[in-house]
Write a structure and sequence with these properties.
This protein has about 500 residues and is mainly α. The longest helix is centred in the middle third of the chain and has 29 residues. The two termini are about 20 Å apart.
């Protein structure tokens, strides 16, 4: 009895929830106020420095995640070019997100804590080795391609700067993995603290979205009104699945159900994109996988019947209504559905630009390897490019590619994890992707955070700094959960 009381609401920390809500709301409502955001950022910096010097690494990681992932990141989504937040303030030209990641990385390196990586076992060890391997290979292979002026990439005076820009997000993800694995693996018994931060962020994003909706706090996404919220909402649309997991007790499931529904509905109506619609479509299949693999057949039957009942008004009333009144949703819904109408004679030629771009990128990657088969094994590295050798890209804009890419007619900014890994790491990247898919599909029922982190990897790897910190933490927590459960079963 004592043990169950102590474990009650273990995923909930009111302190973390309140701080996450306050920080998230300030970021969303006062992003244009230099004075307000300066004060907030100064407080965030002081908090992190205090935790850093007090050697409270778990809380440092948790608060760093809150401060970074609630920041607004992209001018294209915010609707203004000048906005502020933790990620936007810089020291010597380097944004605070990078500064405080490097700070904790070098601390762990110099005090020997990074040696914890050599004690890893099982899936988390394999994942860490994979990330370290593909990042290192892609960095040096990319330099070789730059040296030999592949696809004319070295003719531009800014080529080396572009190489740094192309490598930037991948190296950050690697550093995040090394830091997060080291900290969490060194404090496995206190992993619940990080879970409390993750839980708090889900609640905070839901509260912020609801507040933005109530008070009309809108951004401008390509000329269309959208709720002013962190990019993290793109990933957290999957939070509607969290209450399925037995890790959470009744109170936690109630809070997650409320938050998940709020995020799911408001995100799809006001902030939707193709990836979010794909996740929404996948939700029933993910539910099926979770319940089948965990052997919860009664819950599966009840959920299936409930889904069928709900599907009738959703597809006959709600979906047509949202499509008719919301231009953004209508556009993205058409883009996603058109990608799957492959039996039509004019399927590819009439496909909207967004899905067509992704398919065109894949086909041109294949064409690139046909022309340069020596690159197939390791890929073309960072700043490795493709050209439209098949002449299927169509009109291109600076919304999709940088001016450097458009002028050079060589493209490295790809839009999907699969395409990205295939270009930067070739067959090695493809093997890593397939291995990760296997891990996610076979272990998704074991940890709610593996489900979230798995979707981050499949959809958002190397996409966004504000999303990656949350996604990487979720993935690593999930992988460590798996190892802990393996040990527990062996002991039993």
């Amino acid at each position: 009895m004592k043990s169950s009381l102590l474990n009650k609401n273990k995923n909930i920390s009111l302190e973390f929830i309140m701080i996450a809500i306050i920080v998230s709301i300030i970021n969303s409502f006062f992003y244009e106020s230099f004075a307000v955001m300066t004060v907030l950022t100064m407080i965030e910096v002081l908090v992190l420095l205090k935790l850093f010097f007090n050697n409270q690494d778990l809380k440092y990681l948790g608060y760093y995640m809150i401060f970074l992932s609630t920041s607004l990141e992209s001018a294209a989504f915010v609707g203004v070019d000048e906005f502020y937040g933790f990620k936007n303030f810089r020291i010597a030209g380097v944004n605070l997100g990078v500064v405080f990641l490097l700070l904790i990385f070098f601390k762990l390196l110099f005090n020997g804590s990074i040696n914890e990586l050599f004690r890893l076992k099982g899936t988390i060890k394999k994942f860490t080795i994979w990330i370290l391997t593909i990042t290192t290979i892609a960095f040096f292979v990319g330099l070789v391609h730059l040296l030999f002026n592949d696809n004319n990439v070295a003719t531009n005076i800014n080529s080396f700067n572009m190489f740094i820009e192309a490598s930037y997000i991948f190296i950050l993800v690697l550093l995040e993995v090394l830091v997060i694995v080291t900290i969490i693996h060194s404090n496995t018994k206190e992993i619940y603290i990080i879970k409390q931060f993750l839980f708090a962020l889900v609640i905070a994003i839901a509260v912020t979205m609801l507040s933005s909706y109530i008070f009309g706090n809108y951004g401008n996404r390509g000329g269309i009104e959208s709720l002013q919220i962190s990019n993290l909402v793109m990933l957290l649309i999957c939070s509607i699945l969290l209450p399925l997991y037995q890790e959470f007790n009744k109170l936690e499931k109630i809070l997650l159900t409320f938050s998940g529904i709020v995020i799911f509905l408001l995100a799809l109506i006001f902030n939707t994109n193709g990836k979010m619609i794909i996740v929404a479509v996948l939700v029933p299949f993910i539910i099926l996988g979770i319940l089948l693999r965990s052997g919860r057949y009664k819950t599966l039957i009840i959920t299936t019947l409930g889904s069928i009942i709900l599907a009738i008004p959703i597809f006959t009333i709600l979906l047509p209504y949202v499509v008719s009144v919301n231009l953004l949703f209508a556009i993205k819904f058409e883009q996603v559905t058109s990608a799957f109408l492959f039996w039509k004679d004019d399927w590819f030629s009439t496909m909207p630009a967004s899905p067509k771009t992704r398919i065109s990128q894949f086909l041109n990657i294949v064409a690139e390897y046909f022309n340069k088969p020596w690159s197939l094994l390791t890929g073309k590295g960072y700043l490795g490019t493709i050209r439209d050798n098949l002449n299927i890209f169509g009109p291109l804009t600076e919304f999709e590619y940088s001016k450097w890419e458009l002028d050079n007619k060589s493209y490295f900014r790809l839009h999907e994890t699969f395409n990205t890994l295939l270009l930067t790491n070739g067959l090695i990247g493809l093997l890593f992707f397939l291995w990760m898919i296997k891990v996610i599909l076979t272990k998704i029922h074991l940890s709610p955070w593996l489900m979230v982190g798995g979707l981050w990897f499949i959809l958002f790897y190397a996409y966004s700094v504000t999303i990656s910190i949350f996604g990487v933490v979720c993935l690593i927590v999930g992988l460590i959960d798996i190892e802990v459960q393996k040990k527990t079963k062996k002991i039993k």
